[in-house]
Amino acid sequence: MPTTAAKASGTVSGEADPVDAVYAQPGAGVRFDWGLAGASELGRVCAALVVVDVLSFTTAVDVAVGRGTRVHPFPWSAQAEAYASRVGAVAAVGRAEVSVERPWSLSPAALRRAPGTPDLVLPSPNGSAICAAASATGLPVVAGCLRNARAVARWLLHQGYGTARAPIGVIAAGERWPDDTLRPGVEDLLGAAAILDGLAGARGGLSVEAAVALAALNSVPDVAAAIRGSVSGRELTARGFADDVAIALERDASTVVPLLRGGIFGRA
Predict the structure, then answer these.
(1) Cβ distance 252 to 195 under 8 Å?
(2) Residue 13 to residue 25: CA distance in whole angstroms
(3) Could you count the other beta carbons within 10 Å of the beta carbon of residue 183?
(4) Residue 76: CB partners within 8 Å, gap ≥ 6?
(5) Could you tell me whether strands 11-12 and 175-176 are parallel, antiparallel, or unpaired per DSSP bridges?
(6) Pick from 7, 101, 117, 241: CA 20 to 30 A from residue 163's CA?
(7) Residue 174: CATH number of its domain
(8) How large is the C-alpha radius of gyration of the chain?
């Protein structure tokens, strides 16, 4: 019986476990997966990761970094305030808790209106949690969304990623069900696919998973309408945050490439 450590590394007595190895989508220069588990799997084998959480973490990161703010991703918890105090930052509050005194939140619209701040701790249960975990790998981690999809793809290819030796892992964050399991989201599938579209010419080619995700994008005649009509889009709109959806749909409006260095997002 192989040990847990051996199974996790994909080796038993020095030999690759073919079952474990396939989950990493071997041989492709561009790979695609979902959520924290997918990021963990691709983080073992890829040279760079792109995390996509369109509504709204990575869109908020794009907006904030574009205004000169350094963003600290942090898992959604009551500890964010204490962490912000330790690192000399301000902590974002929930969308409904925005006030004159605390104008920063996960809402991209609120971040556009808020005064600039040098450092912002931005917690969320999906994109932020994935980025915070991925930072421990030491890999370059990029925050991607519809707003900066073209810029992110160009930067990655310019850096030499996208080969079989230096593959890119694109991670759609998804949402959470009440039991905390992953709920795949249309918005993150299409956001990730917009980045995959820019990476389609990578020398290492797309994995089957990445190619199927890209095919989903190509089959949608109106991406904005699809995201507005999705569960996540309708949820935010019903809560009074239609402006956040509108900002997230500003496809390729941004040239910012937020890169995670030392646990902090800044311009690449």
Answers:
(1) no
(2) 22
(3) 15
(4) 123, 124, 125, 128, 129
(5) unpaired
(6) 7
(7) 3.90.1560.10
(8) 18
CB of 21 within 8 A of CB of 15?
Answer: no
Distance separating the N- and C-terminal Cα atoms of the chain: 45
Local structure of residue 229 (DSSP, 8 states) = H
Spatial separation of the C-alpha atoms in residues 190 and 113, rounded to whole Å: 27
**Domain range enclosing 45:** 25-59+126-267
> Based on the structure, what is the number of domains in the chain?
1
53, two tokens: 């959480």
> What is the residue-averaged pLDDT of the chain?
92
Name residue 118's amino acid. P
Q: Residue 4: its pLDDT value, please?
A: 31
Digit-coded pLDDT (tens) for 46-95: 999 999 999 999 999 999 999 999 999 998 777 899 999 999 999 999 99
At which residue do the structure tokens 């792109």 appear? Answer: 50
- Summarize the chain as % helix, strand, coil (round to 5): 45, 20, 40
Q: Which amino acid is at 172?
A: A
Whether 158 maps to a domain, the answer reads yes
**51 C-beta neighbours (distance < 10 Å), count:** 31
Cβ neighbours around 147 below 10 Å, total: 27
Identify whether 235 is part of a domain: yes
- Residue 28 dihedral angles phi and psi, to the nearest 5°: -95, 145
Containing 131, the helix (H) or strand (E) segment is helix 127-134
Residue 44 vs residues 39, 140, 196: alpha-carbon distances, Å: 9, 13, 20
As beta bridge partners, residue 15 has 12
Whether 1 is covered by a domain: the verdict is no
Q: From CA 110, how far away is CA 108, in angstroms rounded?
A: 5
pTM (2 d.p.): 0.92
- Interatomic CA distance for residues 233 and 196, integer angstroms: 22
